[in-house]
Amino acid sequence: MKAAEFYKQHETRMKAIDVTLGQFKEYETRFNEMEEALKTIQTQNNRPPIPSQTTETRKGAWHDSELRSFSKTGEINLDNVKDAETRALYQADDTTGGYFAQTEWVNELLRNIVLYSEIAGAVGSRNTAATTIEIPVYDHSFSAQWTGAEVATKSETTGQSFGMKQITTHEIYALIDMSQKDLEDSRFDLEGYMMKEFALQFAVAEAYAILFGNGIGQPNGILDASAGLWGGTTTATQDVVDPNDMKNLFWSLLPQYSQMPGTQWVMHQFMVQALDEFRGVNEKQYVWQPGLSADPFKQSLMGHDIVLAPEMSYNNSSGRSKPGAIFGALDRGYLKVNRIDTQILRDPYTQATKGLIRFVARRRVGGKVILPEAIKVLTLHA
Question: What is the pLDDT of residues 23-52, one digit of tens each?
Fold first, then answer.
């Protein structure tokens, strides 16, 4: 037999063997399926039989009337279910299921609004690398004179003088001790919250100092007696502020300042409300008609924006004069000096034996009225 014929016969036999093996695998798969089906039938047959719903077996069960009532109302009257065994899970009792009624944690801290004015953004501001800055001031000027004749002897025109304004920076601080365990285990970011709180409380203290600071360890305020801005304009009647008072305050400022775009009003919200509610002689139409704005508190009076200042007074119930409103070019008349911006020190050592972390925040800032003629104050009648 030739080799080619032998090889051909061998290849034919191998193909036949492959076909046979494929059939065996198919038979094995079918056998496994039949075996699984048999097991399922056996399991079903091994289950205990369900008793027939005879009168005796239904003696302690729900009646058809209760079932129909439940399908309609979703409620079961257990008083009518005799010999029924009931179980209850109560959310109010931890041991009977309350443990499984989980609460939801809201990662937000609720707090009341902290009132302070935004006057710090309305006044002039500059940075410095020194403890104190000095600003030269041209206090008085000379007056030009006419010669009066074609040939005349000219004398010196006197009267000019110079001065110096000094603004010293002062330090404001806040110190808070917090538990190390609270910082480690709290689900709320306490440390991040305290960083924001430092900035907020510094803004509150700074706004008050810009208005009322006495210059002793703090900035000199606009309404400090040393600024000499009181008494320029006073309300005509005690506890009553009318549009004429605001007009008098407006016109008491030099027109060069009142025409500047940065000139603003500063007053309490209730003072704005009193003006807003003022009516004319016939009591039918409001005198003040503020412009339409998306922000109702960003209104203007006589063409100038209003800065709401909760630190300001809106009545003189104490029986003494109080500042009721400020009007002027605040960015020209008052200068705030920033020496050191807010710094926060995390100190884990000082209170380590007590398990506390100390946070110390500080800031250095100064301020003073540098141009009194640019700011006018309305004084409430005593």
Answer: 777 878 887 888 888 888 777 777 666 555
Cα separation, 158 vs 317, whole angstroms: 49
SS3 56: coil
Asked whether 120 and 336 are in contact (CB, 8 A), the reply is yes
Q: What is the DSSP string of 92-115?
A: SSGGGBGGGS----------PPPP
Q: Which domains are seen in the chain, by residue range?
A: 119-140+161-380 (3.30.2400.10)
Closest CA to 342 of 358, 325, 359: 359
Distance (Å, whole) CA 361 – CA 378: 36
Which residues contact residue 151 at a Cβ distance below 8 angstroms, ignoring those fewer than 6 apart?
none
d(CA 323, CA 382): 11
Tell how far CA 101 is from the center of its chain.
Answer: 32
Token pair of 72 as six digits: 């309609």
- The residue that leads in pLDDT, 36 or 76, is 36
According to DSSP, the β-strands at 334-347 and 161-168 are unpaired
Show the tokens assigned to 277. Answer: 């509610």
Nearby residues of 135 by Cβ (< 8 Å), 6 or more positions away: 164, 165, 166, 167, 335, 370
Do residues 366 and 309 lie in contact, with contact meaning Cβ atoms separated by under 8 Å?
no
How many other β-carbons are positioned within 10 Å of the β-carbon of residue 360?
16
